[in-house]
Amino acid sequence: MEFRKEDIQVLRTKSRATSQVTLDMDYNVPDVKPDIGRMIQNKGEVTVEEVRLNDGHAFVKGKLQADVLYVGEEDGRVYSLSAGVPVEETLNLDGIVNGDKLCLKWEIEDLSIHIIHSRKMNIRAVITFYASVDELTGIRLPVAADDENISVKKKQMCLLSLAVHKKDTLRLKEEVELVSNKPDIAELLWYTIEIRGLDLRPEEQKVKAKGELFIFVLYTGGDEGSTLQWLEHTIPFNGEAECTGCTSEMIPNLEASVISQSLEVRPDADGEERKLQADVVLELDMKLYREEEHDVIMDAYTPFRQYQTKGRPEMLESLLIRNFSRCRLSDRVTIRETQGKILQICHSQGDVKVDKTQIVSDGIQVDGILRLKVLYIVGNDDMPFYSAETVIPFSHIVEARGISKDSVYYLHSELEQLSTTMADSNELEIRATIGVNVLVLQCSEEFILDKMEEAPLDQEKIRSLPGITVYIVQPEDTLWDIAKRFYTTTEEIRSMNELENEEISSGMPLLLVKKVEE
């Protein structure tokens, strides 16, 4: 006998791998660049150029671009240079084949650049790649029996079904025009672009994104003396990515990562180099779930025929909680006196690194660090620019009532706000807000029926049962279980015992009459 069924879609992890790459190379300063006197600051960005999948392996090829801001040895002016370091890695992913969809993420765990001498520097970096391959699986839930003589035991379930799973890119293009008291841009020396307060939410047939671009620029002015200029600018942005099948009522699990960013100098209407165009590309990983109610048949029988149920265990997911939490940090950083007294802070930037997460009582404990870089000016006319780097550890508990070892959670963290001020001439005060968002799913393994196959009645068992008996209800009993055990029906028990409904209590006597004939 077959069941009428309803379908849900779930995402299963087919394979997952993590690999760490260590780079160590010497780099010669190009002939067109002046000798290095002192390094001010560095930054790095990984670009993946090629990903190939073969049986059980993923080959990744790309490059690390390491940028250095430094003071020239002879003239004391500020310069910058870029070095490209090739990156190649093979990740072992059991069970994958060519054609699988790979989700690849990466982060620079550590980047250190040291000056060997004025024409050579050493670049060391540790890059971690995270790869996963998911596959969409359908689960068919039995909800009704074709035979009206079959008595079924149902369980009401509120389950998540994956409605949308896709990747897309979102391009953000924003312009900044110099204020009138700033000179034209002769040479762009250094820039950083940060996204803060990113909010992704589903709407009808699209996913909307809003947040702020924080842009810092250091450049050589086109004025007399080629003075060093800098500016900070915040640009609110709104964007959207097409997402067919998406609705605002869906449960989102949305991730965004920056895969490329650039800043270019553009002429204004008068032809003067006074515009900056920021170009940022985000990769969106969009998973959207539909919450559905299903009355699932967990067991079935008839007192007149013997059936054997066929099925298999399945892991089902339901929504436990979504929580948007914030962790606020404050700290003070002391600057070495050898660098001189701080006159002005030019720019501060930070990124969040989560080192460990673990389930605790009614929550998730998140431990990590906030990595900070601060560019500032000291009272030294020869070499005024310096940079301070520090880390602020944090531990934060995101509330998630009811979470257990059987739960699955997806956690996203980002730097929402950062403020760096001068506490005094050699101390900086740091205040930051970290957003920690979590989606918690409760997983339960259930035996899902596929069909019922008729088998001969167990006559020996039937004969061993009395035709009429009085049964005392036990604590875990239900009326349906009693009816199945004694080859009768719930309707018959209710009629014989004048019960208004199927509610019974422990210790209650029930008169039972066997319906099946020997």
Automatic annotation (TrEMBL):
PROSITE patterns, per the entry: LYSM (PS51782)
**Which InterPro entries does the record associate with it?**
LysM, LysM_dom_sf, SipL_SPOCS_dom
Organism domain of life: Bacteria
Q: Where is the LysM domain?
A: 469-512
Pfam family example for this protein? LysM
Query: What's this protein's name?
Result: DUF3794 domain-containing protein
Instruction: Tell me the organism.
Output: Blautia intestinalis
